[in-house]
Every structure is written in C-alpha cells, then in structure tokens.
Specification:
By secondary structure, the protein is α+β, with helices and mostly antiparallel strands. It has helices at about 10-15, 30-35, 60-65, 70-75, 120-130, 140-145, 180-190, and strands at about 30, 35-40, 60, 80-85, 85, 90-95, 100, 110-115, 120, 145-150, 155-160, 170.
C-alpha cells in the first residue's frame, strides 16, 4: 500500500528543473537575493521544519531511472522501501514523463530517514557513500532548493519559500558572501571560480 500523499505543491518554477539536467543558456545569478541568507543543510529534528516534508517532489523519467538502481542502498537507510518481493513502487505518474515521489502520512518524503536525531535525505547520503557527483541520484529540485529559477528560467534566485525551512535564515548583517553550499549549487549550473566565496572575488 502506498503512503498517503500531502497536498502541498511546489511552485511552477520549482518544478521546471525536474524536466532536464541541462540548465538554460545565459543564466544570470541573483546574488543580492542569495547573499541575503545563510544556508547550511544540516538536517532537522522536526518534520514541520524540514524541506523533505514541505513539497511534493516530481522527477523526470530520466531521474527516476537513476534512482531505481540505488534503491537497495537507500533501503539500508529507509527499511520501509523494502517489500517481501523487492522494493516498493514509490513513484506515481502525475503527467506524461513526470513522476511524483510518495510521502508518509505526515508529509515526509519516503526517501527521508532519521540519522543522529535529524531528518536527512537517503538519496543525498547514497550519493556521498558511492562517491557520486551531486545530482547524480538526488532529484534536481531537491539539489536546487533553496534556490529556484525565475519564471523565464534564466535567473537563478532565492526560492520564495526558502525561509520556511530552518536551514535557511536571513543574515543579520549585509554581506556579498555566498554561503558555501549555495555556491556549490550555483556552480552546478554556472561556472564558478575555484575558491570563490563571493561575487567577483576569490578566497586567498
């Protein structure tokens, strides 16, 4: 039996990046918006504060086919993914070529698990365990958050719901320094100078 699905839906711009691993050409980065926050994906103790429970995540068929081979690894962290004859089908086709990932009754993604008292993503952990590059398994929208693309798809900016998660907070003092994890995300879509910590500068 499949877990109940939650009703919260991400914005259209948040879903857009599930369709392709190729970023649009001519991307501009909204540094003022991105530099206004601190971000560290450290996991959360409470379901209500975790991004793993705030959105219905959809993946493309290509992404689904990257996740399926690592189900045995993910199931080591999420035993509920196992069934008597294999692994649970936790994907539901929401439209042609787009699949929603199931959630538990409390809204938590079925790929989430608790480690050291904190909610974490098993697909993110599996990527690290297998030495895979970011986004090799983890869904594109999850890799992107708390960033998103503008409606036109050519500006990388802060998601309008970024501050609903405890990992992201408004900076008390103005800064043009990008949080390291956000800089890594930006580098997934745009060229970033090695050692760069802020727009136009490099760490010495």
């Amino acid at each position: 039996m499949k877990p109940a699905r939650k009703k919260t839906k991400p914005s259209a711009s948040f879903i857009r990046k599930t369709q392709s691993k190729k970023a649009p050409r001519g991307i501009r980065v909204d540094y003022p918006s991105i530099c206004s926050v601190d971000f560290e994906c450290s996991g959360q103790a409470e379901v209500s504060k975790s991004c793993c429970a705030k959105f219905d995540v959809t993946v493309s068929e290509t992404e689904l086919n990257r996740i399926i081979p690592v189900l045995p690894d993910a199931a080591q962290l999420c035993p509920h993914l196992k069934t008597d004859d294999g692994y649970a089908n936790v994907f539901e086709e929401s439209e042609k070529g787009v699949y929603s990932i199931d959630t538990h009754e409390n809204g938590l993604c079925v790929f989430a698990y608790v480690g050291q008292g904190l909610i974490r993503c098993s697909l993110h952990t599996v990527e690290k365990q297998l030495g895979l590059s970011p986004g090799s398994v983890k869904p594109e929208v999850c890799l992107l958050f708390p960033l998103t693309f503008s409606g036109a798809g050519n500006v990388l900016t802060l998601h309008d719901q970024a501050l609903t998660c405890e990992c992201c907070s408004i900076r008390k003092k103005a800064s043009n320094r990008v949080s390291p994890e956000l800089l890594e995300t930006i580098g997934h879509y745009c060229q970033v100078t090695p050692g760069q910590t802020e727009l136009g500068t490099s760490q010495k």
